[in-house]
Amino acid sequence: MTAPLPLEGITVVSLEQAVAAPFATRQLADLGARVIKVERPGPGDFARGYDESVHGQSSYFVWLNRSKESVTLDIKTPGGREVLEKLLGEADVFVQNLAPGAARRLGLGADDLAARHPQLITCDISGYGNTGPWARRKAYDLLVQCETGVVSLTGSPDEPAKVGISIADIAAGMYAYSGILTALYERRATGTARPVEVSLFEALAEWMGSPAYYTAYSGTQPARVGAQHATIAPYGPYDAADGRTVLLAIQNEREWKSFCAVFLDDEPLATDPRFHKGSSRVARREELNAIVAARFAELDADDAVELLDEAKVANARLNSVTEFWEHPVLSGRDRWREVDTPGGSVKALLPPATPGGLVPRMGPVPAVGEHTDSVLRGLGYETASILTLRADGAV
Q1: The CATH number of domain 235-317, selected from 3.30.1540.10, 3.20.20.80, 3.40.50.1260, 3.30.200.20
Q2: End-to-end CA gap in the chain
Q3: What is the DSSP letter of 158?
Q4: What pTM value is reported for the model?
Q5: 235-317: same fold as 11-208+328-391?
């Protein structure tokens, strides 16, 4: 018999769309929370339409929405609003990432909800915060990457580039998840339900800590150096003789000395005045890279990795997404499970952090409104009342 999950008995109602809020609530569902996802009647969460790559479904939606119940509500109708209020009256957590200001205009701001539902923990996810000069400004992942300076750090010297995954959304979703867990812990200890607020901008601003400090106190912004490290060398990709790419990372002087002796077969280079300390190696990056690249050009990727391992220098192959999908660590650690979706079964990774001895929930991805009738019945609605709600366009 499996142990109960830590969030069993917790109900989350989420007016969510896109990435940040669904990522937060999916993690709550992984740990046993009942997550009721409120979607628009008809198309539902617009992220369902991002692509059709997974059995005709969006890759984003399949990733972010397993183990949830989908309920369609038009919360601007009296009937839809009544249903939402009943849901909130029985919920522990309310999450929303509607357009700027929309929740407050609907009477769903944290203060309004605290007055009507004092037991309810609210979590507002916005682009730039609910107050301040940019409170009403729209925000999407790439725009926030630009505003926080991430894009100015990423790419080649000639061209900036965004990070290839939605890091602003993911960062906000992670902080929303941890903030909700903290609020649940405090409510259990003190009885006080505190609101949680997360913005994409402030979540990613936290991740900018190192380059922000470096720039503010050195007076120089870290350079864009592609897949190399802006402030450490050698650290980055090199092409082996067989055309494959291997990355290496020198972290300290001990590794630098070992790298010179074992991999480069040039022990004196470790104490060469041009490269004898980290800042010198960064200052002469091009000269050093030419030496390292020449050695890689003599070796196949497998031989290069073998020598780097012998030197105890961290390294990695530059994998494609397909190679990641087939990675031996994922299969060797039994990280894959099967999850049902409306279009068919898919592989899904177990959550990265699960308390020992517990089996995370890996439930199906819902169709739009799949659970509307069952949730309404759970709230006490009879068949006739449900039919009326449908006729009015409320659900």
Answers
A1: 3.30.1540.10
A2: 38
A3: S
A4: 0.92
A5: no
pLDDT band at 354 (very low <50, low <70, confident <90, very high): confident
Strands (DSSP E) along 290-356, which ranges?
Answer: 314-317, 336-339, 346-349
* Cα distance between residue 138 and residue 128, in whole Å: 8
C-alpha–C-alpha distance, residues 288 and 381, integer Å: 72
User: Residues with catalytic annotation?
Assistant: 229
Q: Residue 254: what are its φ and ψ, rounded to 5°?
A: -60, -45
For the chain, give the number of residues: 395
Angle (CA) 300 302 308, round 5°: 100
Domain boundaries, the chain: 11-208+328-391, 235-317
Stretch among 141-145, 163-167, 228-232, 381-385 having the lowest mean pLDDT: 228-232
Beta-carbon-side half-sphere exposure of residue 2 (alpha carbons within 13 Å): 11
Average pLDDT over residues 326-346: 97
Question: Nearest-CA neighbor of 81 among 15, 136, 34?
Answer: 15
C-beta separation of 148 from 139 below 8 A: no
**DSSP structure class, residue 327:** -
In order of 135, 228, 232, 389, the CA distances from 149 in angstroms are 19, 18, 20, 47
d(CA 351, CA 346): 15
Match domain 11-208+328-391 to its CATH number in 3.30.230.10, 3.50.50.60, 3.40.50.10540, 3.40.30.10: 3.40.50.10540
